[in-house]
Structures are given as C-alpha cells and as structure tokens.
Amino acid sequence: MSEKETKRPEKEVYDAPKTRRDIPFEDENQFNKMFDADLVKKAFAFGIPYRKTFFGALSMLICLAAANLLSPWFTKLIIDEGITYGSLSICGFTIGHGSPHDRFAVVTIVCAVFLAVWIVRWIINYWYSVVLTSLAQRVINDIRLTLFSHIQHMSLTFFGKQTGGRLISRIMGDVGAINNLIVNGSIQLIIDILTAVVVFIIMWHMNHTLTLWLLTMLPLVSLITTLLRNAARSSYRDVRRKNAAATAVISENVSGVKVIKSFAREKSNLLNYKRANRDLRRSIMHSVVVSSIFGSSVEFLTVIGLAMVFIIGGRQISQGQLSVGEFVAFLGYIGHFFNPIKNLGIFYNTLQAAMAGCERIFTILNTEPEIKDKPGAVPLTDIKGAVEFNNVVFGYNPGITIINDVSFRVEPGMTAAFVGSTGAGKSTIINLLARQYDINSGSILIDGTDIRDVTLDSLRSNMGVVLQDSFLFPGTILENIRYGRLDATDEECKQAARTVGAEEFILEMPRGFKTDVKEGASRLSTGQKQLISFARALIADPRILVLDEATSSVDTQTEKLIQNALRELFKNRTSFVVAHRLSTIAEADCIYVLEHGRIIEYGSHQQLMSLDGGKYRELYQIQFEKMEKAGQLD
C-alpha cells in the first residue's frame, strides 16, 4: 500500500536558528591572543557578586604586606637605636640614654613590638586564608554552575561534536585556571604593584645611590619577560589541550568498558592512555621549564643587585655615609622589591593559563543552543495527544536530507509504530517529535499547535521516553523510578513497578527498592533495566509516549513481560514505537514502513501482512525465520 496523496495547506517554514558553531577541539591552536580584554572582562563578571568579600580580602592582604615591610625597619631599629646607641625616640619621647642597660631595654621593647605585630599578622593571615578560600570556592561554584547549566540546554548537535572527557575537562580544569586569575592572581597583582611602589619609596628615602643602582636591573627583567612571554602563552595552552585529551581518554574508556573487554583491548587502550599521559607530562615539564627560566633569571639579577649593594654600601659605611642598621634594612628591602617583580612573571603565567581556559569556556558559553524557545513561545498544556507531521523534510547536514516529505496523523490514544531498515529514519522521526532537532521545512503539530511555537520544557514534559539503552542514574531503584516525577510517593513508584511487572525481581534483590544501582547494576539484566525505565516513564504519566528500540535487546521471556507492560503504558496515551522486533508492534493501530526517509507503506499489522511483495511482510518473514532457527518461537 502506498502513502495516500493528500493536499494539505502550506505551512510556514521556520529556519533553524543560525548560531556560531563551537570551534572544534582539534582546532584550538587557532587561538593566538596573548591578552583578550573582552574575555578577561567576562571572567571577572563572575566575581562582581562577591566584590565586598574581594575588597575585604584585599584589605587584609594589604595589612599582611605592611607587616612584612616593617620587618627590615625593625631590624634597623634594633641595630642602630638599640645595640649601637641604646636610645630610641618615638613621637617626641626618648627611651634610654646609651647605657648597657638602656641598650638591652631598647632591644627588648623593639622585639616586643615586633612580636605583637607578627601576632596580629598571624591572626589576619588566618582570616585572609579563610576568606580567600571561601571567595575562590564561590566563584568556582558559580562558573561551574553557569557552564553546566549552559551545557544542559545545548542541543544534540552540540554533543555530537564534543566528547564527554573534554567537556569534563572544561568544567573541572579550565574553571580552576579562571578562578586563579579572578581571585588569587588579581589580588596578588594589586598587592605586588603596591608593594613595589612603597618599597621603592622607602629605599629611595633611605639611600638614593643604592636605589638607582638597583633600577639598572629592571631593563634586563623586562627583556627576559618579553623573550619568554610567547613561549609561556604557547606552553600553557598546550597543557590545557593535552590535559583535555588525557581526560577524554579516561572518560571514553570508562564509558566503553564493555566493548573494550569484549574485544580484549585493555592493553591497546592502556597504550593510548600512556601516550596521552606522556604528552601531558612533556607539556607540563615544558611549561615548568619556561616558568623556571624566568624565576631563576630574576633571582640571578637579584644576586647581582645584592653584590652591587654590598660593594657600594660597604664603601658608604666605611665613609660614614650609611649606618649598619640602614644597610641591613636596605638589604631586606631588596628582597621585597624584587619579589613583586618575580611575582609579576608568575602572574603572567597565571594570566596565560587563565586565557587558555577562558578561550575554551567562553567558546562554549558563546555558543547558543541551536534548539531553543522562539520569542513568544507558549506552554503546551492540557493536550489530548493528536500528532501530525506535514510534509516534513530534515537533514543533519546541509544538502543531505534524512527525512523526505513525510506526512501522517496519529489520533489521541492511538499507537503508531515505525519500522524499516537501519538508517531509514525511524529514530530521527522520534527526535524531531521531541524537537531535539529543528526540521528544514514542513511542520509538526500537537493538537494543531506547531511544536516550534511552544516552550521546550512544556513540550518534553508531556512526553515520556524509553530508549534502547536504559540508562540508570546512581542511586536506588526507587530513586530511578521517581526520576520520572520527582514528587511521586514511594507507594506510587512501587505501584508503577508493579504495573509494568518489575516488582517481582526488584523484591528478590537484597534491599528491594532500596538497592543501590551502582552496587546492583551488574546483577540487573538488560530487560530488568528496561522494565525499570518503563516504570519511570509510567510514573511521569505523559500524554505522549515514545519507545525507541526499547525491546530490541531483551530475551523472549522478558519480551512477554514487556508486552504486558506496554499494554499498561499505552492506555489512554498517544504512543510512538520504533521497533526492531516486529512481533512487539503487532497490536499497534498503525504501522509506518520507512525507506530512505520516506513512508512507503502504512496500515495495521494484518493489512500490511496481506500485501503481496510488501516491505513489511518481507521484514516480518525474515525475522520469523531467524527466530524459528534460533528456537525462540513457542
């Protein structure tokens, strides 16, 4: 029987939203900006809600830096005022007059004040660590939630281009790099700049000549920074890329463990991971070498500066132009002056790591979902379940159509089945009904409303879906059934399991409905997992039910249980069944036979079996013969 030729009113054709496609991970090396102000601005936007905490942490760090800068000055006081003169003048008051007892008293007083300052510093440092950690975790949490939420709303096309391991690397790895920039890096940068300026002023006030000699080192530091920055940027980007690749290998191996063991490919996969891990190790070592060269170079220049200070300072001391205390204090401030400069190099490395992370994360965040609510979309409520495809054309790639001018109507409460050879377009029709993809032309209506005119949440909440691969979430069997409707009671979940015939085997398990799926998954057969999925779909009580190859991987005995469960599921619902086993759809109200994306036959089981030379009859007879040979027929 051929598809009926019917004239239908021409429907409005919506173009799929045109979005910026995600840059493939293998093309990540096309990012080449050393600094992208727009990306940094977007990254710092995550810290805006916590700006009070940020400035609180900054204030505490300023106090810590100030306490550190007091150390050389206290040393000067002990040497010059205490040991040498035995007299200390503070705010117009003089302590001691040079006697040995006065020297001891001055040293004791200065040391006591110094100890008090460091006790306060210890308290501030404790609270700074607590506040900074809290701030960092909040920012990380917000970035990860934003990224996870965005990924959750992406269409199937997006996931077809990404691997799970690389997405995990984005959420867990790259987010940490951005946090280092927002929290640790930015605060430390501000403090380092302030410290360098303040120390320079102090050193200039203490001794102009020694300070000028130290400044001759800065051009060399600048030169080293310029020479190493390109290598740093490249190395940190490479670390991110290699880390994502290694994570992807782990994720894909865990996901495909059954296939790996079936083909005894453990050694081969171990070699793949060794290669990925080796590449990551080499990349990390290269970045460490680049960072170490900069740090060692700054330390070397610091030593040169110290040598010049010893030579010039020693001469000034011998000529009475510089006291021993001032000289020792100046030596202390040299470290405080060069440390911020060295930290600026570390910040540059942090910036490059963060830029690499930002590029990857915001590439995802800037990618709009291809399937989303159109402006003015309305909720789909109180539906009866009439479904109509009108001249639907669809292709995953431009110029190649998978579904070609398909039209049919399923009345409320009817069961429609779709059969055909592999690649005929059966599962694609189901995906289009749930609007996992947007059609190229034509229209799909539910109760006369185009599914593109309703919100995605309301559309999919009216559908219950059971797939061939019954995925069970970590948690108990009861929790997995309740996933269909989160407010369902325990008794309602148990009743759903009872209705689909799953209660018997569940109660045979040691903890019954409280059995943890992670612990009991190995004891659950494919058919048992499928029945739990049926219970999950039943508890959702959808108006439209979709079964995509849901009975293709079960034995004959389990199939009988599933057939009974299906009768309960199909009651008062519009049902769509994609079937490999044709025996499971004999009771369908209408069966559509697909070939090359077109409906070539449709009718009831009896009608299609009565067609001489029909495709359905041919498929059914082939399966019947296979089952007969396998001894699966009663």
Pick out its properties:
alpha/beta, 634 residues, Rossmann fold, 3 domains, six-stranded mixed β-sheet, 20 helices, 10% strand, disordered N terminus, elongated, 60% helix
Structural features, described:
- The protein is 60% helix and 10% strand.
- By secondary structure, the chain is α/β, with parallel strands linked by helices.
- Strands 8-9-10-5-11-12 form a six-stranded mixed sheet, sandwiched between helices.
- Strand 11 (590-595) and strand 12 form a beta hairpin.
- Helix 3 runs antiparallel to helix 5.
SSE blueprint:
Blueprint: H1 37-44, H2 51-85, E1 88-90, E2 93-95, H3 100-152, H4 156-161, H5 164-206, H6 208-215, H7 218-255, H8 257-262, H9 266-318, H10 324-365, E3 387-394, E4 403-410, E5 415-420, H11 426-433, E6 441-446, E7 449-450, H12 456-461, E8 463-467, H13 477-482, H14 490-499, H15 503-507, H16 517-520, H17 526-540, E9 544-548, H18 556-570, E10 574-578, E11 590-595, E12 598-603, H19 605-609, H20 615-630
Parallel strand pairs: 5-10, 5-11, 8-9, 9-10
Antiparallel strand pairs: 1-2, 3-4, 3-6, 6-7, 11-12
**Percentage beta strand:** 5-15%
CATH topology of the largest domain: ABC transporter transmembrane region fold
If helices are DSSP runs of H or I spanning 4 or more residues, what is the number of helices? 20
Shape: elongated
